[in-house]
Design goal:
heterodimer, A: about 230 residues, Arc Repressor Mutant, subunit A, 11 strands, about 40% helix, B: Helix Hairpins, 3 domains, 5-stranded mixed beta sheet, rod-shaped
């Protein structure tokens, strides 16, 4: 069980905040509340949370800005809350650094499930593989480290898990559905944009030339593959 | 009394055309007639003058000839000109031609010449048209001299004039028709534009406006029309915004309700029995409320044209299996033939899954029977370009005339025999239709055709013909 998880909930509606806090505390988790982006940054500075829940529509600095601001210093999983699933908000939020999203109104059970999925630990599939090498890209799963040309690359937890999933079967093709299941715990109706945006984010960090990826490559019509 | 001719039945364009044609025709006929009568009288007068002078000269010469040799009457008549001549000397008539006899002289003319002893001329009608008869008294030889001229040249000249005028009349009329067509087109062009704009507005393109014009007659219509559309647009948008705003505003309290109910539910066992019953009611209605708000939001997005489909290639059979598994009857039987099992479509899987879920809900709520989902290629198509997803039930079927109404908003298929649902707000089928239409498909309902009682709902979607399914992003 994931006991003792610390969640920072950033939401300007205090009633929603209070009810979500009640529901998440039922899971045995600790919930910090913030009514604005500014307050969230202060609180996050005091106690690092395990997960941050951000409503995109915030007074003052908005959710996107807050995402980017947190991402500068932390690889913490971020779940954002949007009004709609079919807007550009989703892609914009993911590009700002969010790991997953929910649309309002959501059930706290669903939120808890999303958080659990994001906090799942990845283990190296084959023990003894302390280091996986793909050309100029090295993955050290036990230490959670990724090196590009021997320089350490800062990946978020989700990006790292995505890379490790791909590394579990080097050269094998992973469909978007499979990655959605393995990294986010989604079934058939998961949003493929999660995979697409995360792959894009990953390429920005692990590719020498992100426009012409050589490690994380697209297999047309099928999915993605990690190669040397 | 029935009016045989109702000018209002003729369109504006044709009325303008008719006025132009009638005007041109009338004007050219009047002008031609005036021209003709002037020309005619001029020509005839001239001819009469010439002929009379000629006749006088001839008469004098004939008189002189006869004075010289009184017996040579015919010889005298044969001189001078081609006109037919007739002379009466002492009441003895002699003609230079068998075509001119005494009977052809009108009595009035004879009277003037014989009694008044004066030269005169008269136009007579003959079998070959009009002719001129000139009579001159020759008192010195106690005779009357007559000349007959059939006016052929005048007739020929007049015939040419007539022909020219008829041709001119026709040309003028045709020019009138051409002008009429042009003028009527111009006159009704603003109306055609307005009609086109009105059609565009009816199709939902509310931003359509008429172009402003300098024409003072049209300005009133144009500005009134544009004002009307602006007001309409404002109202439609306000209504759509209202629905959207209301639904948005409802989401926050709903969020609180859903979270709080969940907290209560996790403590359900600690509650007294009556509280548990109340909690169950609360809990189920909160989720129903949530569904309704979602549906309303989705509908308002349709009305605002704000839906963005997240399209991706889908293997239909796999998709339907998944869609059914998340519906309210996840164990619904699916039948798919071998060919249809290979079909791929392009679609927004979450929205299409809602369509399937709504159709299954509809079958469950309204027909009570167990629905079945059938996937097959569209009937009567070769090569097949569409696929049918059929949700059929074994309920009471559809009442005649009901089959299109049930896709209207807040319709509950309330006709006899169908249990009015306590579930669902009647938006499910309306939403399904909107979704299917956005996917360039069709949806309709009919009674089952296989002899079993029940209804079937058919969703027709275009088959994705692209050889390899493509990723939708990147």
């Amino acid at each position: 069980m994931t006991v003792g998880i610390r969640v920072l909930a950033v939401e300007d509606d205090e009633r929603i905040r209070a009810s979500v806090k009640l529901a998440l505390e039922d899971e045995g988790w600790i919930v910090d509340e913030a009514a604005s982006g500014e307050e969230a940054i202060t609180i996050f500075g005091k106690h690092a949370a395990d997960v941050v829940l951000i409503d995109i529509m915030l007074p003052g600095i908005d959710g996107f800005e807050l995402c980017r601001s947190i991402r500068k210093s932390s690889d913490v999983p971020i779940v954002m809350v949007t009004a709609r699933a079919d807007t550009h908000d989703v892609v914009a939020g993911l590009e700002a650094g969010a790991d997953d999203y929910l649309t309002k109104p959501f059930a706290p059970k669903e939120l808890a499930a999303r958080i659990r999925a994001l906090l799942r630990r990845v283990r190296p599939s084959k023990p003894g593989h302390s280091k996986l090498v793909f050309g100029n890209l090295e993955i050290i799963p036990d230490e959670g480290k990724v090196l590009l040309d021997s320089n350490e690359v800062e990946l978020t937890k989700t990006e790292f898990r995505l890379l490790c999933e791909l590394a579990n079967d080097p050269g094998g093709v992973f469909s978007r559905e499979l990655l959605l299941d393995k990294v986010w715990g989604y079934g058939y109706f998961g949003d493929g944009r999660l995979v697409d945006v995360h792959i894009r984010r990953l390429r920005m960090k692990v590719e020498s030339d992100p426009a012409n990826p050589t490690h994380v490559v697209t297999v047309r019509g099928l999915g993605y593959r990690l190669q040397s | 009394m029935t009016k045989l001719f109702n000018p209002r039945r003729i369109g504006l364009r044709n009325r303008i055309l008719l006025i132009f044609v009638a005007g041109a025709l009338l004007l050219s006929i009047v002008l031609a007639s005036i021209t003709y009568s002037f020309t005619r009288s001029n020509l005839v007068d001239q001819r009469i003058a010439v002929e009379t002078n000629q006749a006088i000269a001839n008469a004098r010469r004939t008189q002189n000839d006869l004075l010289r040799s009184p017996d040579e009457v015919l010889v005298a008549l044969d001189q001078g000109g081609i006109a037919h001549k007739l002379i009466s000397i002492n009441n003895s008539w002699t003609s230079s031609s068998p075509l001119f006899s005494r009977q052809m002289i009108p009595p009035a003319l004879l009277q003037r010449v014989q009694v008044d002893k004066r030269a005169a001329s008269m136009i007579v009608d003959s079998a070959k048209g009009q002719a001129l008869v000139v009579g001159i008294p020759l008192p010195r030889i106690n005779a009357m001299y007559f000349e007959y001229d059939n006016l052929r040249e005048v007739r020929d000249a007049l015939q040419s004039v007539r022909l020219a005028l008829i041709i001119a009349t026709f040309i003028t009329t045709f020019v009138g028709i051409a002008l009429g067509v042009f003028a009527s087109r111009r006159a009704v062009r603003p109306l055609a534009n307005a009609a086109q704009a009105a059609r565009a507005i009816a199709d939902g393109r509310l931003e359509t406006r008429l172009e402003p014009t300098d024409d003072p007659d049209m300005q009133a219509l144009t500005s009134a029309f544009n004002d009307m559309v602006a007001t309409l647009q404002e109202r439609v948008e306000r209504d759509a915004r209202f629905t959207s705003d209301v639904s948005h505003e409802l989401r926050s309290p709903l969020m609180t309700l859903a979270a709080s109910v969940q907290v209560l539910e996790s403590r359900r066992d600690e509650l007294p029995e009556r509280s548990q019953a109340a909690l169950d009611l609360l809990s189920s209605d909160v989720s129903r409320f949530q569904g309704l708000v979602e549906d309303l939001l989705e509908i308002s997005r349709f009305d605002a044209g704000a839906i963005r489909l997240v399209l991706e290639p889908l293997f239909l059979f796999e998709f339907i299996k998944q869609a059914v598994s998340v519906s309210s009857l996840p164990r619904t039987e699916i039948r798919c033939d071998d060919i249809a099992a290979l079909v791929a479509i392009r679609g927004d899987k979450r929205r299409l899954a809602r369509v399937i879920a709504n159709l299954i809900d509809n079958a469950r709520i309204h027909s009570g029977g167990k629905p079945k989902v059938v996937i097959q290629l569209a009937e009567n198509e070769s090569p097949p370009t569409h696929v049918w997803i059929i949700v059929e039930d074994d309920g009471d079927g559809l009442i005649e005339g009901e089959s299109s109404k049930i896709f209207e908003r807040f319709s509950r298929g309330g006709a006899a025999g169908r249990r009015a649902g306590t579930e669902g707000a009647g938006l499910g089928l309306a939403l399904a239709r909107e979704h299917v239409t956005l996917h360039k498909g069709r949806i309709w309902a009919e009674n089952r055709t296989d002899g079993i009682r029940g209804a079937r709902f058919i969703v027709e979607l275009p088959i994705d013909q692209s050889p390899t399914p493509d990723e939708h992003h990147e």
